[in-house]
Amino acid sequence: MIKTSEAEQYIVPVPTVRTSKRSTWIAKVVRDKYLLLLLLPGLAYFLLFKYVPMWGVLLAFKNYQPYVGFLESEWVGLANFKQFFQDPVFFQLIRNTLLLGLYDMVFFFPAPIILAILLNEVRKSFYKRFIQSLIYIPHFISMVIVASISYLLLTTEGGVINEWVLKLFGHKIDFLTSESWFRPMIITQSIWKEMGWGTIIFLAALAGVDQEQYEAAIVDGANRFRQLWHITLPAIQGTIIVVLILRMGHFMDRGFEQVLLMINPLNRPVAEVFDTYVYTAGIIQGAFSYSAAVGLFKAIISVILVFTTNYLAKRAGHSGIF
């Protein structure tokens, strides 16, 4: 009988195969090659149209002269930013953009959520799909058409709404040139055009709510409002927070096309925002470096708002986007 020590002499050790991280990575690439190919168009889009143009931010630190070229133009550092901060229009742009942003967050942001909850309460699927189709249509209408409709409805020269105002109050209101009516008009346009389309993501979140929770709440005697408050809203709370964080990234974007179509010399003091000012200074007046500095400042504020909102959401116990 062979002893244990002698038996161990006949055991042939199996060589340990060490797989490097590089070979593992290559194996995963080969395995998922078709999925990666599907990913290429999206990566190419973001690379070409989002990251490569970021090289142009250096224009904000130069005194760009077209006949000299981008690389040969004089480097002026923060001179363009100092000029912008010292310009009286700076505080006007900050005020107008922030007020429109606040109007947007107070009136427009909750609108798709409320509409999605109302649609979720519609039990007849035919009526629900019909209403969804109607409210999605304005999203596909050009802003030029929306501005034209607004002009036809609000103009003092035969506008339908102004004719009603004349019959009710005995005088017309110049909505299109009034400073006090500009912001409500812009927010109303945004709500009408994008509210329906914004319900898509919230309806998708509502579709994932467990129906047994509603059945249990009904058994416990909860009415529709209690079900909404204790089941529906907590179920879509995470989605609302994520959408809020993403929307804060566009807080300073007030819709260049929309504002440009509705702005005029009479309402310009309250209508001029960063987007239209960059267009005026850069394209019309030819101050390319100065307008690039203004645009970069706006982008930096947007990034700060996103990080701040994400941080506050995490501090409040919610999951952020990063």
Structural overview:
By secondary structure, the protein is an all-alpha fold. It has one domain: Orthogonal Bundle (MetI-like fold). It is 68% helix and 1% strand. The chain has a two-stranded antiparallel sheet. The longest helix has 29 residues. The model has no long low-confidence stretch (mean pLDDT 87).
In short:
With 322 residues, this protein is mainly alpha-helical. It has helices spanning 4-7, 21-31, 33-51, 79-86, 89-108, 110-120, 125-136, 143-154, 160-169, 179-207, 211-219, 224-248, 256-262, 268-271, 274-284, 288-315; strands at 62-63, 74-75.
| CA-based shape | globular
CATH class: Mainly Alpha
Characterize the largest beta sheet: strand count, sense, and whether it forms a barrel: 2 strands, antiparallel
Radius of gyration over alpha carbons?
A: 29 Å
Low-pLDDT regions = none
Distance between the termini: 66 Å
Q: Bin the strand percentage.
A: under 5%
Order of helices and strands: HHHEEHHHHHHHHHHHHH
Annotated CATH architecture:
Orthogonal Bundle
Q: Helical stretch count?
A: 16
Task: Give the integer mean of the pLDDT values.
Answer: 87
Please state the structural category: mainly alpha
User: Which strand order spans the largest sheet, edge to edge or round the barrel?
Assistant: 1-2
CATH H-level superfamily: MetI-like
Number of domains: 1
* Secondary structure: helix percent: 55-70%
Report the count of strand segments: 2
Subcellular location: Cell membrane; Membrane
Protein name: Protein LplB
Pfam family, one: BPD_transp_1
Family: Belongs to the binding-protein-dependent transport system permease family.
